[in-house]
Design a protein that fits this description.
Chains A, B: Its EC number is 3.5.4.28, 3.5.4.31. The first copy, chain A, has helices at 82-95, 99-115, 128-138, 154-171, 193-206, 218-228, 232-239, 256-264, 273-278, 286-291, 311-326, 334-340, 343-348, 382-389, 416-432, and strands at residues 3-12, 20-28, 31-36, 48-51, 55-59, 61-63, 118-125, 141-148, 179-185, 210-214, 246-250, 268-271, 296-298, 366-370, 395-400, 403-407, 410-411. Chain A is an alpha/beta fold and 433 residues long. In chain A, the strands form three sheets. In chain A, strands 1, 2, 3, 4, 5, 14, 15, 16 and 17 form a nine-stranded mixed beta sheet that branches. In chain A, strands 6-7-8-9 form a four-stranded parallel beta sheet. The first copy, chain A, has a four-stranded parallel beta sheet with strand order 10-11-12-13. The mean pLDDT of chain A is 97.
Chain lengths: 433, 433
């Protein structure tokens, strides 16, 4: 039995009943078993002790949308619009990917996420067996899905669907439960309606949730109207997408009725502010979504459109941009922004009973921030400091499922230097291929 | 004679003729005397040698608007509108400031700026002698001004003006030339027109430039129209403000004619995106300002409205938000954004012949970034990586005026732990006072 006793730490719990606790936390195996101002009594026998002074402990961050392997394409196509970026730059390069590219691109993304405090990430890509292997080895938690594009002959559609189903079936619950799976049509504009229906049917059959890109750009919404006579939310609803647990990425361009329908159907929204700004897709109506009761969480999208995977950046952007856009400085206050990156992330991936806050009985997925830095002083409103001044580089230690995976800023289970070198070589070979 | 020879480094120069150089740089005393792909020939005698591998060298960042001492009020008033924040929270607390608060608040800000790669900062505050002493000691470069608010009896106005003049006269060119000074009415809405005229007259007399807050909120613009029958740009122009070298902070709410006038009068704009978003003031028309030929630079504003002083954050925000707002992903591309934080900062404070780029003959104000991190891989478009993935926490070493002031992330000339502790105590005493 493994026990860890953190003494004299500051805990930002994201539990509204006790948001900040200065005191003690005990972890036993993969669970938090104690969290209180007073030291545990009796003292936990045989526990490793950690001096928590100068550290702030909080739930690990949850990144609800991304494509990890695309980190090889970081900086490959900047300052261009989404369709050029996607169709002329990303897809041709991705078409040349081999297994090694997925492996080292994903590994590069995983070390960046772990070191910056992300303990759970959603990944939609292909060659997902490789992604799952990286998740298994790295100690991170993954919500994984083979995203399928249906703009292809029906035999290819079928092959992709079968691959996605096999992956979802084979890997669900694996890696000590750290991996869960979903089914994903890439987007309404890249999947014909009948193909989306087959994917939904497969999700029913496998009893897994659904994820997709939706309403990222005004152009794709207009195309949906032209092609199918309705906007994407109504379109997906008619196809039965929301009959299953589901969440969508982006959701930038929404009408009031669409927001109401997402709330009614309990559909989560992964807000990707940096990617949406960088590709000039627009700015999601986050305050309206929150007001309507939609579960909003945060995603980085890929490093090819962001271009980093530090979720603290998304938390700060979410807290800042909606104030500037709406003219209301009270929207998305600091605590709400931090919730988007933690508890709401857990809700989005249906794991809020296990993840997203520091509470007795929950999984021990948590991070330690080095607060002995000028930007955390004066040490008063620590939630505000995390949101408006914090960064993934402030993360010192990371635990997932009770196991320490980052110590002193270094990944314990992965060879960072090797991954950086392999990723560099993969990119250079992609250029030559 | 002090010489430093950096071998085998990557230099992002911000000199358009040679934007990236992989090679060698030699510093002699306070100047860059060599920068080339080839090693210097003859080799610089008696030079300290630095292995540049794994490091990226670039000009130090220039923060063109802030109030350093307000870092004591970081997190003291979040998620509120500017007038409440300013009049009900900031001014009452600032009214209780004593010398120690200015000293330790400024010191806290300076260590945060130095560690995150800012080598020159603009500061508008009071008790400026203390600020200047901190600048002198810390090794940073400061463009300092005693900002005056004129909403007070005329004898108090006169006393403040005399204090501002004395400061500007006494400290200009001090600290080995690292300090320059300006005169500053706080804002058109806090200074009666005749008081602004007296300040302008003093600037003429002392031959120093002018700085002010301008058009930060729609409300203050409207008040200007109500009180003086014109908008702030025209108002300041009529008062003769632009007859001297000058730059303004914020400039969020501008009409086309105002942008044209700022360009014509060669008035710089310090764009403060995080502060403007956080206080919901709005979003400056940066692409239009740049297109019109206005020199746009970046400021953090104070840690009470940001809430950090990492200029990399402002660089990234400047690159991201204007794309999202305009719907044009090509505006403020990565190189332009980095220029706002470096060369344009130097232009704004009239020091572009000395600062803002790595060039032979310029002052040796530069920083070294640790690029052996996942978010800088693959190592391809380093300017893009700096802007879209970089952070002040990636800064390893800092040199100002040829002198190393940060090494391995630690300030060499200031006692960081003492400053953090003193700042904490100052804030706690402010609450009690």
């Amino acid at each position: 039995m493994n026990r860890l006793w953190i003494e004299n730490g500051t805990f930002v719990t994201m539990n509204e009943k006790a948001p900040v606790i200065k005191g003690h936390m005990v972890v036993e195996n993969d669970r938090i078993i104690y969290l209180d101002e007073e030291p545990p009594n009796p003292l936990p026998e045989g526990a490793e002790r950690l001096d928590g002074r100068g550290l702030l402990f909080m739930p690990g961050l949850i990144n609800t949308h991304g494509h990890a392997a695309m980190s090889l394409l970081r900086g490959y196509s900047d300052d261009q619009n989404l369709q050029v970026w996607l169709e002329q730059k990303m897809w041709p390069m991705e078409g040349k990917y081999i297994d090694a590219d997925t492996r080292w691109g994903t590994s590069l993304a995983v070390i960046e996420m772990l070191k910056s405090g992300t303990t759970t990430f959603v990944d939609m890509y292909d060659r997902m067996n490789i992604v799952a292997e990286v998740v298994e080895q790295s100690g991170i938690r993954g919500v994984l899905t083979r995203g399928v594009i249906g703009l292809c002959p029906s035999d290819v559609q079928t092959a992709k669907l079968e691959e996605a189903k096999s992956f979802a079936r084979d890997w669900n619950g694996k890696a000590d439960g750290r991996i869960t799976t979903m089914m994903s049509p890439h987007a309404p504009y890249t999947c014909p309606p009948d193909y989306i229906e087959r994917i939904i049917e497969a999700a029913h059959e496998l009893n897994v949730p659904l994820h997709t890109h939706m309403s990222e750009t005004a152009a794709e919404v207009q195309q949906n109207v032209n092609d199918y006579g309705c906007r994407p939310v109504e379109h997906l609803d008619k196809l039965g997408f929301f009959s299953r647990p589901s969440f969508v990425a982006h959701a930038v361009h929404l009408h009031d009725e669409e927001i109401a329908l997402l709330a009614e159907k309990n559909v989560g929204v992964s807000h990707n502010p940096a990617s949406n700004l960088k590709l000039a897709s627009g700015i999601a109506r986050v305050p309206d979504l929150i007001r309507a009761g939609v579960t909003v969480s945060l995603g980085t999208d890929s490093a090819a459109s962001n271009n980093n995977l530090d979720l603290f950046d998304e938390i700060r952007l979410a807290a800042l941009i909606h104030k500037g856009i709406t003219g209301d400085p009270t929207v998305v206050p600091a605590y709400e922004a931090l919730k988007l990156g933690t508890l709401n992330g857990a809700r989005t991936v249906w794991q809020e009973t296990q993840l997203g806050s520091l509470e007795v009985g929950k999984k021990a997925d948590f991070i330690a921030i080095d607060t002995e830095q000028p930007h955390f002083y004066p040490q008063t409103e620590m939630v505000s400091h995390l949101v408006y001044a914090g960064s993934g580089r402030d993360v010192k230690h990371v635990w997932i499922n009770g196991r320490q995976v980052v110590s002193g800023g270094e990944c314990l289970l992965l060879d960072e230097a090797k991954i950086r070198a392999e990723a560099q070589q993969c990119f250079e070979r992609l250029l030559e291929r």
